[in-house]
Amino acid sequence: MKRAMSPELLGRPEVRVFPNLEDLSRQAASRFEELANRCIAEGRIFAAALSGGSTPRRLYQLLAGPPFSDRIPWRSIHLFQVDERCVPPDHADSNYRMVREALLTNGLVPEPNFHRMAAELPDRDAAARQYAEELARVLKPQASSDWPRLDLVLLGMGPDGHTASLFPGSAALDEQSRWVAPNYVEKLTSYRLTLTFPVLNAAAEIIFLVAGADKAEALRQVLDASSAAGKLPAQRIRPAQGQVRWYVDKAAARFL
């Protein structure tokens, strides 16, 4: 059974606590289905950005199989990446490879409807511009100065409070003009491509998926209204005209 924590009591976004990753993932799949069908009933495409890492894998597997696969109109859905490691798409560390194996192999999602970050390109700035152009082509912001508006963004959070590939102390934390940016992560000695805070915060809905006891302290800090605002990257996810939901397992919620 899930436990919901009132946003009014927390002074923070909605938080739902589930016994385990399986229950968390099923609830997230149900929300994905609900939002997708609502958008399409309104005559629009449904555009979602998918995170990488290990936590969302089970969610993607659930979406790829019945009953969810039968109830989701995949041909009207466009999927983007939140971030990507600068490795080839078949590399073991590739977020795209994980999503492909978990969600895309059954052919439900038309190939043109999955928009992959070409993070393996040697010119990372060019790769970032290319992905921003793809976002603009599909999402069609009304004005050139508008941020693209995704219907749903799925995010994770690391034990250090990072989200997407926006790590503490990294340069992309301060990006306010680019939609997509290369970001060097010093502690990992590697580059990544990531959607920036302005794009993430322009989304209609953001769902954080957080599982594991190693995330508990960071989660406590992020949801603590008295803590320093913006100290951790995940605290800077505050959509101007959207909703943030936290789906967390019992282990991650142990300090709440």
List the helices and strands and how they pair.
Blueprint: E1 3-5, H1 7-10, E2 14-18, H2 21-41, E3 46-50, H3 57-64, H4 68-71, E4 77-81, E5 83-85, H5 95-104, E6 114-115, H6 124-139, E7 152-155, E8 180-185, E9 190-195, H7 197-200, E10 205-210, H8 216-223, E11 243-249
Parallel strand pairs: 2-11, 3-4, 3-7, 4-6, 7-10, 10-11
Antiparallel strand pairs: 1-2, 5-9, 8-9
Helix pairs in contact: 2-3, 3-5
Description:
With 256 residues, the protein is an alpha/beta fold. The protein has one domain: Rossmann fold (3-Layer(aba) Sandwich), CATH 3.40.50.1360. The protein is 29% helix and 20% strand. The chain contains eight helices and eleven strands. The chain has an eight-stranded mixed sheet, sandwiched between helices. The longest helix is centred in the first third of the chain and has 21 residues, at 21-41. The two termini are 17 Å apart.
